Amino acid sequence: MSVQVEQYKAILAELHQVTLVAVSKTKPAEDIETLYRLGQRDFGENYVQELLDKQAKLPTDIHWHFIGHLQSNKVKYIAPFVYLIHGIDSLKLLKEVDKQAAKCNRRIDCLLQVHIAQEETKFGLDATELAEVVSALPQLPNVRVRGLMGMASFSEDLAKVRTEFASLKKMYDRFAHQSSDWNILSMGMSGDYKLAVEEGSTMVRIGSLLFGARQNKA
Ligand SMILES: *Cc1c(COP(=O)(O)O)cnc(C)c1O
Predict the structure, then answer these.
(1) Distances in Å between the alpha carbon of 112 and those of 28, 64, 143, 150?
(2) What mean pLDDT is reported for the chain?
(3) Which of 4, 67, 214 to mutate to test the pocket of ligand 1 (most atoms within 8 A of CB)?
(4) DSSP code of 94?
(5) What is the pLDDT of residues 134-165, one digit of tens each?
(6) Does the beta carbon of 46 lie inside 6 Å of ligand 1?
């Protein structure tokens, strides 16, 4: 069995007031059921088709978090049920979520993804783009932006990772006054969640520590 049940319980016990999103991408539905039976309801997925397949066969009270890079043309497939979209990295994408949410007669919760890593490859808004998106929110009544999401550099240099998390927390605090909906800071993965929590994370996204290593999806 690849699900690390003891590890799951240990992580839950050390997180106080921090939501654990169990990142189940590439893992079978049975692994999700194992944690579901222990009470876990928040699961994170990165790929639209895989999420649709799992959503169709798993319990309806699961909170599905979309944490991957979302293409605008795929928003319509997840709009009816997605619980929180973590990776909003352009105004264009947020406008499409707003449009699809209206069609479903719902408001969709979203996080704005900020580029904090020094690496070039990661998606996300810079500080200027973030301010632009925030100022457009009054025109997007069908989305509710709850806060920010970010990924630190994949690095052994813990001081660097900590600095990146701290910079995200700073941006999060800067916009916190703009609405009472703003109360989620999604940062921290298997390798760096402890640091992230120390720096103010309210939501961690943990995959491999719970479900074992993944095969790379090429
Ligand atoms: C895959 C993924 C995670 C989980 O990564 P682990 O290192 O396995 O914990 C978290 N966040 C995002 C955005 C991911 O793509």
Answers:
(1) 28, 17, 11, 8
(2) 95
(3) 67
(4) H
(5) 999 999 999 999 999 999 998 899 999 999 99
(6) yes
